[in-house]
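Suppose you are handed a protein chain with no further information: no name, no annotation, nothing but its sequence. What can you learn? This example shows the usual starting point.
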Amino acid sequence: MWLKETFKVVAGLLLAVALLWWVFRGIDLDTLWGHLREASLGGLLLCGLLGVGHNLFRVLRWRALLDPVRSGLPFRSMFEAIILGYATSWVVPGRLGELVRPALLAGRENLPVGPCLGSVLADRLLDGMAVLVLFAIGIFVTPLAAESMQHVGLIRAGAVGLVVVISIPLAILLVASTARPKLERLLSGRGGWRRWLGWFVLSLSDGVQALKRPVLLARIALHTMLAWLTITAATWVGVRACGVEISFGGTMMLLPLLALGIALPTPGGAGGYHAAMRVGLTKLFLVGNTLAVGTGLLVHAASVLPVILLGGLVMVMGRSSIQDLRRAVRQIREMGSSSSAAGVAGRPAEKLS
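A reasonable first move is to predict its three-dimensional structure. Written in structure tokens, the prediction is:
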């Protein structure tokens, strides 16, 4: 286990180094420094504020997703779980924050871990759909140079492919949720790993029940779009603060690239986000390489640093600790190592102090 974790950390660091090497290749550092100094500090601060603020809509969406499990979950617990999850992802390679977030909430509110984790899987698909919808709107409203159009098709294909890949596990969970009585009868006659896997999937499927309820689905869709419009606004303000003239619709077109870049398992999205920003600005909007690199550096910092600082503040205030984060990750991992079907993720998580 120690070797596996070490490999993930080293691989994430090496990937970040390789991407940053490509990003800075051919860049004049004096010119880059000039662009950095000319950026609007006020604009970058607003970018960071909007970046943190979009999580308010994420909390509302997550609460709606978990409404069938327990209605009226505390806003503060959910917000802090989201912030600590993102802060963990920015600091630790491997996107562990996606596991920390549901486990922290499950432990603090004594919820089953499985539905919380299933709701996070639903989160990811909803994000992918929102990115694709905004990208399509951006193409429609944003005029591009002829030489930029050849790159639009590739980005569109990548965005659609990403949604398809993410949709597969969610479709499985929705089918399992719908056919739960039949699957429970089928699993009662099974043993070993098949029984465990079946109950594991059923446990996760409790986190997508809300998608089958029209009222909750409408709330979820609304909060998803509001969250991503706020993210778009944060990016737009940040990019313009760096001196890049771009429309709001043009920023929508950057979303698939930036989402892919930030999803790479590097510490804090380092390298991936910067490479995505450089490619998007230079290929779609014909921005100079040096200005594109400077923009990526500043907008990334404005997006990530406030979340890390806020996560540290949450821990200093005593609501969570390093031990809580470690326990949360351990709880998720134990879901995949238990040999007993009775111990699958449907049980409430251990209460976090």
